[in-house]
Amino acid sequence: MVNIVLFGKPGAGKGTQAEFLKEKYNLTHISTGDVFRYNLKNGTELGKQAQVFIDKGELVPDALTIKMLQDEVEKNPDTKGFLFDGFPRTVAQADALDEFLKTKGWEVTATVALEADDEILVQRLLERGKTSGRADDQDENLIRNRYQEYNEKTAPLIEYYKGQGKFFAVNGIGEISEVTQRLSLIIDKL
């Protein structure tokens, strides 16, 4: 079983790359963004609770995020592996993911970070916001707040996974196919 954590700042290309990687490596893609949107759209209890934080441009608390993720994993008992997109976002979530995967006899195989300059990412998100309908992609202040949250809460994951020998960084700027190739070079060696 190969379980890959794909992370990077909002707009770094996680969702785009995940689409290619899930097909190439036959992985079950779990995007916390998609899981959140499903729960929000369908008015689930977890979705209603998450909406309050999303509206402020804040990260959804760990307990809500972890419960949503566990529900998604349980839906795919026969998978060859998971591609976690946007989760974990904090060291506490990484610990919770490790503990949850252990109950299944699994572990995180590798963590790959898509790295890119903030100013490029802000422009990407503002462009995406023109068609996505997502309020958090249309307001530069909310975008920058998300980056501040990332720097404070998610960047420590680099050291967490480096300590496990499972961290890899990839330049997320360039043609989509170029970034996919960079990611594949790492994943093929796992």
TrEMBL record:
Recorded catalytic activity of this chain's protein: AMP + ATP = 2 ADP
PROSITE patterns linked to this entry: ADENYLATE_KINASE
Keywords: ATP-binding, Cytoplasm, Kinase, Nucleotide biosynthesis, Nucleotide-binding, Transferase
EC number: 2.7.4.3
Residues noted as binding AMP in the record, renumbered to the chain: 32, 37, 58-60, 86-89, 93, 134, 146
GO biological process: AMP salvage
Keyword Transferase: yes
Signal peptide start and end residues: none
Subcellular location: Cytoplasm
Pathway in which this enzyme or protein is active: Purine metabolism; AMP biosynthesis via salvage pathway; AMP from ADP: step 1/1
Amino acids binding ATP: 11-16, 128, 174
Region annotation NMP: where it falls in the sequence: 31-60
Pfam families: ADK (PF00406)
One term of GO molecular function: AMP kinase activity
Gene Ontology terms: cellular component: cytoplasm
Subunit relationships: Monomer.
Purpose: Catalyzes the reversible transfer of the terminal phosphate group between ATP and AMP. Plays an important role in cellular energy homeostasis and in adenine nucleotide metabolism.
Family designation: Belongs to the adenylate kinase family.
This protein's name: Adenylate kinase
Phylogenetic lineage: Bacteria, Pseudomonadati, Bacteroidota, Flavobacteriia, Flavobacteriales
